[in-house]
Write a structure and sequence with these properties.
38% of the residues lie in helices and 21% in strands. The protein is α+β, with helices and mostly antiparallel strands. A hairpin with a 4-residue loop joins strand 11 and strand 12.
């Protein structure tokens, strides 16, 4: 009886429980329905994009960089076809197996591959370049194995090639892969793996040379294997550039400076075009056409000879006797002397208790201004400097461009130092002494200049007061940057003296038969070792077509070391262009424009 009552009671409760269960089921299904409705209707676009992103990979087709030519159409920088290997991390489904196979085929350490993947960890859906350059044989092997290597991308690409290796390296520059900071700063301008110019012409004109990337949209399946191509956009090659460099003159200057440390610049003083530009020792920019290992980079940067150092615009040196020209100009313009002013040199000059020596121990005797420059007499300039005073010398030094950048666009220039009494007291806390003036008068002491500044001073003399902004392309054309208004007679006296230097003075070893060359030698005291050797020249004197500076660190005497190097350069130039129009390369009757398409 009791059992029957319980069953009857439970049967009465069953409809109530059923109702509750049904309510719960309805609530759950309602929630599911609303969630599906939200995802399918309101979030369709968002999840569609995510689905697409997980099935489509955008692989860039990197543009070929423009070719760089010399003024006569000879290629200085080219491109070579090559293949690159990249990994899309999101598709690397079997990492260990894939990396082992890659390491075996490419002969690359797995740790190196992992390092590159780590650097690209914020770019999971983009190709991260693992190897810059492989040949067609290896590319074919990888291509045959691509279905066993999900996430691997093999692309036809190009490698920058510098056919002359070190020749012109500091002017041409080198390229390198864009880094994370450059990608961020570029605001969409660059993508991972892009190649950009790092120094020189490659950097300055990167926007012109780089071109526009194309892209391929590839479809991948769930395990990261490519199953098709959705879309392909062609790349657009960069524009070519014609430089003002003469590759033959450049080669001559480089060979003349072989195994030396220093700088050579050759210009056309009439327009500022740079014909040759050498910084020694140099480096091979081909090393940077593929990824340079940290060991190789450290080897370059720790080299005591500093091969990466751009000496023509960054090297700061005392100008030595070349600066005597400025002292003489200041004296002539201030009426402190004329070309017939005579002084006596006995091999030394005594000021109070201080002794200042001439380079010629026995002295030059009683000489006039022209001979003082021709024979580079120190004693004559000591006396002339004291008479002219430091303020005037500094004034004319600045008028001729010392103490200021020249405006050369390829790299950051050092501006140098033109000392004054105020500068010395502020910098050192010590007053200016007469001895400081005498040292400055012969281009020593606190005075510091770059080889480019010295050559610009020479160009001002060659052009009777004007120098043009140094440039490497025809992009901007001729632009005056120094205009010194002094007497024509002053320039005539200086030119006559510089001609004497070459004809029968300290610069005799730079003579070119049949061509009137004006020059000035310099042997510069160096507190860190042997004297530096320098020589400047321009010619022909009556119609200057070329100017040159040769600066050899620890080279010794300018007359014995620098002047003969200048002669090799001048001989090369005049053997080619004595009777020719020295213009940029012409094709089909017109000059190739700057930044033309290939």
């Amino acid at each position: 009886m009791g059992i029957e009552r319980i069953h009857i009671k439970e049967l009465k409760l069953l409809p109530e429980r059923l109702k509750v269960i049904i309510v719960y089921i309805l609530i759950i299904f309602s929630i599911l329905f609303l969630r599906i409705l939200y995802l399918q209707v309101f979030r369709t676009k968002h999840f569609g994009e995510l689905a697409s992103y997980n099935s489509v990979r955008i692989v860039p087709k990197r543009a070929f960089r423009g070719i760089i030519y010399d003024r006569q159409g000879i290629p200085l920088v080219e491109n070579l076809p090559t293949y690159t290997v990249s990994i899309i991390p999101a598709d690397l489904t079997d990492k260990n197996n894939t990396l082992n196979k890659l390491s075996s085929i490419l002969k690359v350490n797995i740790s190196d591959i992992e390092d590159k993947l780590e650097k690209g960890k914020y770019h999971q859906f983009e190709p991260i370049k693992i190897v810059d350059s492989i040949d067609a044989r290896l590319a074919s092997i990888l291509d045959e194995s691509k279905f066993e290597l999900p996430g691997i991308v093999i692309q036809l690409d190009s490698k920058r090639y510098y056919p002359n290796a070190e020749i012109g390296a500091h002017i041409l520059g080198y390229i390198g892969e864009v880094n994370e900071l450059q990608i961020l700063d570029g605001e969409g301008k660059y993508s991972l793996g892009d190649i950009i110019g790092q120094t020189g012409v490659e950097k300055k004109y990167d926007d012109i040379l780089r071109g526009k990337n194309g892209q391929i949209k590839i479809i991948v399946n769930a395990i990261g294997k490519q199953v098709g191509i959705l879309e392909e956009k062609n790349r657009e090659a960069g524009s070519n550039i014609i430089l003002t460099i003469d590759s033959e003159l450049q080669k001559t200057a480089e060979e003349a400076m072989a195994k030396k440390t220093g700088a050579v610049i050759v210009m056309n003083p009439k327009n500022g075009e740079i014909l040759a530009y050498v910084s020694k020792p140099g480096f091979n920019p081909n090393l940077f056409s593929v990824r340079t290992s940290s060991v190789e980079w450290q080897k370059l940067m720790s080299n005591r000879e500093r091969p990466m150092y751009n000496r023509p615009i960054k090297g700061l040196y005392a100008p030595g006797s070349i600066f005597k020209l400025i002292t003489v100009i200041a004296a002539l313009e201030s009426n402190m002397c004329d070309e017939h002013t005579k002084m006596t040199c006995k091999g030394k000059y005594i000021y109070n208790t201080w002794e200042f020596k001439c380079w010629k121990k026995e002295g030059h005797g009683a000489i006039e201004l022209n001979d003082a420059i021709k024979d580079s007499c120190d004693v004559y300039l000591y006396q002339l400097g004291l008479k002219t005073r430091v303020e005037r010398i500094a004034k004319y030094a600045k008028l001729f461009g010392f103490g200021s950048p020249t405006g050369f666009a390829l790299g950051s220039e050092e501006q140098g130092i033109v000392p004054t009494p105020e500068w010395k007291e502020f910098t050192t806390g010590v007053f200016w002494f007469p001895g400081d003036t005498m040292h400055m008068a012969i281009g020593q002491g606190y005075l510091l200049v770059t080889p480019m500044q010295i050559l610009q001073m020479v160009n001002v003399i060659a052009n009777d007061g004007i120098a043009y902004e140094p440039h490497i392309t025809k992009e901007k054309g001729i632009k005056p940057c120094i205009n010194v208004e002094i007497k024509k007679n002053t320039f005539d006296i200086i030119k006559k003296a510089m001609l004497s230097v070459v004809e029968n003075g300290t610069g005799y070893s730079s003579r070119i038969p049949g061509v009137k060359i004006a020059g000035k030698t310099s042997s510069i005291q160096n507190p860190h070792g042997a004297d530096h050797a320098a020589f400047v020249a321009f010619g022909p004197v009556e119609d200057p077509q070329i100017s040159v500076i040769v600066f050899v660190e620890k080279g010794g005497k300018g007359s014995a070391v620098a002047a003969p190097i200048a002669r090799q350069i001048l001989e090369k130039y005049f053997s080619k262009h004595k009777k020719e129009d020295y213009g940029l390369v012409k094709k089909d009757g017109y000059t190739i424009p700057f930044g033309h398409k290939p």
